[in-house]
């Protein structure tokens, strides 16, 4: 028998340890009888030091994984609009206190927040829901079509000490 490990306090404070530089910002959603409005990103929040300069959205089909990817020059800033996404991170920054650690985070339409992924952190995303997951990214630098700041490893790489069960994707 194995006892569960506490993940939140009785007040709802998250007890999990995230990688250095991974931060979140709770995002307000306003609901009334007509529907809802959700703020995706506002520079007035002063949540991230880099301005909003570019945005796009991506989808992940149920059960599929996109990754491993890494950026050397910019940070990703994810906000899940619809669905449920598990983000797996691996820290390869030698000066980081979380060097060589793996971290998993769930982003969901049921808990609106924006999350940043620091430079030089490998990341992969897996749809853990039953329908396509739609995620908006507000990277800290615009995409450079002629020289993409995107580095990849296969899902089953030996360079990352993590294995996906039944990996589908790349």
* Uncertain residue segments: none
The domain count comes to 1
In CATH, the topology is named Jelly Rolls
Helix content: under 10%
Classification by helices and strands: mainly beta
Main sheet specs: 5 strands, antiparallel
Q: What percent strand?
A: 35-45%
**Arithmetic mean of pLDDT:** 93
What best-fitting shape do the alpha-carbon axes yield? globular
Number of helices: 0
Strand order of the largest sheet: 1-9-6-11-4
Per DSSP E runs of 2 or more residues, the count of β-strands stands at 12
CATH architecture descriptor name: Sandwich
Question: What does this entry show, briefly?
Answer:
With 170 residues, this protein is mainly β. It has strands at 24-26, 29-32, 35-38, 56-60, 65-70, 76-82, 84-91, 102-108, 113-117, 121-127, 133-137, 151-152.
Secondary structure topology:
Layout: E1 24-26, E2 29-32, E3 35-38, E4 56-60, E5 65-70, E6 76-82, E7 84-91, E8 102-108, E9 113-117, E10 121-127, E11 133-137, E12 151-152
Antiparallel strand pairs: 1-9, 2-3, 4-11, 5-10, 5-12, 6-9, 6-11, 7-8, 7-10
């Amino acid at each position: 028998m194995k006892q569960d490990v506490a993940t939140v306090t009785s007040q709802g404070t998250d007890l999990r340890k995230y990688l250095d530089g991974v931060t979140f910002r709770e995002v307000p959603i306003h609901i009334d009888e007509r529907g809802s409005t959700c703020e995706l990103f506002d520079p007035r929040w002063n949540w991230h030091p880099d301005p909003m300069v570019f945005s796009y959205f991506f989808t992940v089909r149920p059960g599929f994984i996109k990754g491993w990817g890494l950026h050397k020059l910019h940070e990703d800033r994810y906000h899940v609009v619809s669905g449920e996404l598990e983000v797996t991170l691996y820290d390869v920054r030698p000066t980081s206190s979380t060097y060589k650690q793996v971290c998993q985070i769930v982003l969901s339409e049921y808990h609106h927040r924006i999350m940043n992924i620091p430079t030089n952190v490998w990341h992969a995303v897996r749809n853990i829901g039953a329908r396509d997951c739609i995620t908006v990214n507000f990277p800290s630098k615009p995409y450079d079509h002629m020289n993409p700041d995107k580095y990849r490893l296969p899902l089953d790489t030996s360079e990352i000490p993590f294995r996906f069960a039944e990996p589908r994707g790349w």
